[in-house]
Amino acid sequence: MPEPASTFGAGIDSIYYIILWITGAIFVLVETALIVFIIRYRHREGRVAVHTHGSKKAEIVWTVIPFLLVLFIVYASNDIWLEVKRADQDGAAPADALPLRSSTPPTTSSSETSFTSLSEERFGLISDPKTSFTRFSCRTFG
User: Which of the chain's termini has less CB crowding within 10 Å, N or C?
Assistant: First the structure.
């Protein structure tokens, strides 16, 4: 990954990597289970299907595990988010106050200016009236 652009960058990157490893492990486990069940329960002549109503134990397990994972992520990321919030309250410039640099000046007249166009400038959204698509532009701070 590129060098962190802020003092919080390393902490936020570590949270990103924790979530990446968790989701990667879950992906591998789910895909492995999928392949095992596809092979184990493939169609065979003469086998009769068995109907089951469900399993409360399985439903509790697959509800509790994600809940615990979310709690872990909250616990692991709480310190960095508190640090970011504390710095914001200590007088750091909020993201809204930083200018958006553009290679072309705004072309809307004052009569056409609305909340939408202000938020588009503010958040780096660029609307193309020819295609009716909206794309994001990179904000540069300096």
Answer: C
